[in-house]
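Deliverable D5.2: sample structural annotation.
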Amino acid sequence: MTTPTGQRRRVRATDSKEKLFEAAMQLLGSRSPESVSVDEIAAAAGVSKGTVYYNFGSKDELVSQILSYGAHKLMGELARAASGEDPYLALRQMLEFSMDFVASYPSFAHLWMQEQLSADTATAFASTPLHTQVTGLIIEVLERLVVLEPDQKLSVATSIFGAALFTARMRASGQTGLDRGQTVRAVLLTVDGLRATRPAAGS
């Protein structure tokens, strides 16, 4: 019996997302999304153009899903680092992984930042799922390290997130001479300042 189209299980999307993500990141490294065709992405990923359209419907949806997939990859590793016993070390490892992720996939950071900067409202950046998830993780770790006032938590976490993303993007594009360790230490200065001026958690 033939299964209705609307009920078909789109397993190929799951099977192919890693290939599509890698291919899109490579192609978008030096070109805008508008100049990269679905044919090119499909060919680079080793899947058919029909498979891409079947699973995603349009190039805009493909790009959106690629961003979501990249965010999922990033969040999985950040959550693992955040679960470390030592909160300061956990923050350091989160920053180190973020630097490595952006170095491996500079197109992801560039594309994601473009999406946020083209938003209609100033609050759109802070309300995106990736921003919310990352800052939520940072807040969880910070709360194990120092005592912060409720109205300080999101602003501090956003500052750390923004500094990490921006400096990682600068490094990936060769716009700074700082190495990975120097960049991580620079971002951690904010955390060091908190430790020097705020009560330790549990004290």
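Annotation notes: The radius of gyration is 19 Å. Confidence is low (pLDDT under 50) at residues 1-13.
The annotation will be released with the project's public dataset once the embargo ends.
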